[in-house]
DNA sequence: TCATAATGTGGGGAATTGTGGGTAATAGTG
DNA sequence: CACTATTACCCACAATTCCCCACATTATGA
């Protein structure tokens, strides 16, 4: 399970160094093989260890190709999925198309989110967090059923 | 179960010495491994022994990444979660991002709250207590259902 | 009151990690 | 088939982090 945020940077070759604390478990789990795709709701990328991605892929196959919304989800996620292999120095190469989708330049944030990572441009990440905090302050009502009883 | 408040201080490297009375049980429970994240409603940090945090994380996995409010909670909590390992002297390092969120400078309060600790800047803590006391005096109404039957 | 232990605080230095680029291999293109 | 562009691998330096030790300060008990 991944957690935490870290600032990383893309070098001139488009390589991104995975923070060292994640490397061991990635090598162990999937020999450094990962899959990167776009997020549908936010301007960020999703980075899955291969086994985790395969679970997602499995779920996607159960969706109907008749239902337009489900078909769309398949097309977006699968269509943008790229294999990424960690090199010996613990870096991965992000394809230009993907880089563009999340508007990634030099300064990137990599965010652990349980079974995957999110990749954000630093500025977009900060904006998102600011917006999220504001939203949390605002609506004490309108909580989903699941959230009503969430205790920390 | 943790309880009580203690004044502690951050040194120049951002290290915080855990009060000695908690150390033994922390070493026993989780070998000094803890997770620190932000509080969503208050300007303070939450510090969990690893096993306690894993319970929270477990709950977070059940939330949907399609529902915006649930996704937001994941992003805020997990995105700010940092592993903290107690060193030989019983100190933990608080990441700069987190320090900033709770406006922590040198003088800190560490508050035992059952399954976790809260970390407050000393001044914010006193303000919060004052405000809480005032609020209790004021509204005898507006108690939640659970509080109606609470006996001390 | 003093001695001893336990806790709090500070800082030096080694090991790990981040970063940049050179070169070889591979694939893609005309 | 040759040429170019991209990708992978490797090495080396810079920077940071973390680990450990030593001293100061406070608490405890004789």
What is the element layout, followed by pairings?
The structure is a homodimer of 152-residue chains.
Chain A: E1 2-9, E2 15-17, H1 20-30, E3 33-38, E4 45-49, H2 50-61, H3 68-80, E5 82-85, E6 91-93, H4 96-101, E7 107-114, E8 116-121, H5 122-138, H6 145-148
Antiparallel strand pairs in A: 1-7, 2-6, 3-4, 3-5, 4-8, 7-8
Chain A binds a DNA duplex (30 and 30 nucleotides) through residues 8-9, 11-13, 15, 17, 19-20, 85, 87-91, 93.
Q: State the low-pLDDT regions of chain A, or none.
A: none
H/E element sequence of chain A: EEHEEHHEEHEEHH
CATH topology assignment of chain A: Chemotaxis protein chec
How is the largest sheet of chain A built, in terms of strand order? 1-7-8-4-3-5
Number of strands of chain A: 8
């Amino acid at each position: 399970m991944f957690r935490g945020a870290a600032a990383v940077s893309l070098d001139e070759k488009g390589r991104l160094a995975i923070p060292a604390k994640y490397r061991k478990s990635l090598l162990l789990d999937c020999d450094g093989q990962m899959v990167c795709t776009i997020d549908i709701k936010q301007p960020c990328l999703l980075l899955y260890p291969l086994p985790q991605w395969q679970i997602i892929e499995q779920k996607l196959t159960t969706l109907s190709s008749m239902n337009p919304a489900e078909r769309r989800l398949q097309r977006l996620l699968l269509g943008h999925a790229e294999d990424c292999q960690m090199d010996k120095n613990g870096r991965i190469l992000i394809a230009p198309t993907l880089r563009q989708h999340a508007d990634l330049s030099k300064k990137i944030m990599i965010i652990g989110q349980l079974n995957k990572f999110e990749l954000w441009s630093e500025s977009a990440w900060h904006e998102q967090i600011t917006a999220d905090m504001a939203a949390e302050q605002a609506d004490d009502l309108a909580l989903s059923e699941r959230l009503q009883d969430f205790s920390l």
